[in-house]
Amino acid sequence: RLVLGGLNPNAFVTFWTTGAYRGVDAWRTLAGVVLSVTGAEALYADMGHFGRVPISAAWLVLVYPCLVLQYMGQAAALCVRPHGV
Questions:
Q1: How many whole angstroms separate alpha carbon 74 and alpha carbon 84?
Q2: pLDDT per residue over 24-48, tens digit each?
Q3: pTM over 0.70
């Protein structure tokens, strides 16, 4: 239910106007969303050029380990400073 609440346009407006990341920080978060969407679009465009097997191999060998390492770093940072969220 909470995840679906993120699709509500009112939640978007509230995030931008009264949330912890308002102003310039709100634009930075929007930039991250745009980069994520365009990155996913580029992945599917690359699948047309390279095919499924090389993209899957790159995901398993490079992207997935980097994501796991990054999430472990975030978890460690939250363990040290839990109020940093």
A1: 11
A2: 888 888 888 788 778 777 777 777 7
A3: no
